[in-house]
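User: My collaborator sent over this chain with a note saying "see what the structure looks like." That's all I know about it. Can you take a look?
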Amino acid sequence: MESKPLLSTDMPLLKLFRRGKVRDIFDLGEHLLMVSTDRLSAFDVVFEEGIPHKGIVLNQLASFWFEETKHIISNHFVTTDVCAFYPELSQYQPMLEGRSMIVRKAKPMDFEFIVRGYMMGSAFEQYSRDGSIAGKEYPKGLIQGSKFQTPIFTPSTKSHRGHDVNISLHELQDSIGEDKAKYIEEKSIELFAFASSKAFQKGILIADTKFEFGFIDDEMILIDELFTPDSSRFILKKDYEIGYVDRSMDKQFVRNFLIQTGWNKEPPPPALPLDIIQKTSERYLEAYHSLTGKALVL
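Assistant: Without extra context I'll predict from the sequence alone. Here is the result:
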C-alpha cells in the first residue's frame, strides 16, 4: 500500500478544469476526471502536509455510496475504471489508480446542504451562542453529541475561497425557490436516513454530512462526494455510548488538535506532527473498512 502522500497531480496533456482544496479536476469534454489527492483541508485552509491513503479512501468510499444511493436520486458518477473508459489516460495510470473517477459534467449549485443527526460542529457552536441553528430556535439543555429527534437540514453558502456561511431554510428558498429548496431538503434527509441505517448496522453513527447538487440540463442530480470522512462525521457507536463524541473517524481528529494549538484558522496553518498525520490516516482507513466491509483497492 502506498505511503507517500500525493499532494498534486501533473498531467500536462489534460485540460485542468479546477484545483479544489482536495480534488484536481480535469475537463474531458462530456465528462470530468476527478482525482482525489491526499491534501488536507481544515477550517477551509489547505495544509502543507498530506494524509497517506486519504485520497484513495475518499474516492472509493464516494463511489461506494453513489452506487448504493442511486435509487434515491441520480448522481454524476460514471466509473472508477478511468483508464478503461478513456484509454488515453493509461499513461497516467500510476497517478490515477484507486483515487480517480469519471463523472458526468454538471452545473453545480452555489450551496452546500448539511443534514445533522447529532448536535456537533458549527451547529453546537451556534446553539451555544443563542440557542438557534440555521435560524431556528431549539430547546434549552442540549449538549454536544445530543441526538436530534429527527435529522435537521441546515444549508450554507459554498465558498471556494474563505469560509462557508450557514443560512436559514427561508434564505435558501429566497435564493433558489421554494420548490427546489423543498425537494433538496427531502432528498437530503432521505439520503441521510438511508446511509445512517446502513452505517448503524456496521457500528457507526453518522453525526452529520454535507451534500452538493447540480444540474445536467433540467435534471437535478447529486454531485461532488458522498458520505466520506471529509464530508461527514463518523463516530463509533461504542464510543458514543460511553460519551466519547470527540473520537470521530474523520478529519475532526485534526480539527481537535488544531483547536488546542490556539490557531486562528487563517493561513498559514501550523505544521502537523507525524503522529497526528498517522492517526488521521488510520481513522480514514478504519472508516472505509467499517462502512464497506472491504479492503481498500489500490
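A starting point for your reply to your collaborator: The longest strand covers residues 204-216.
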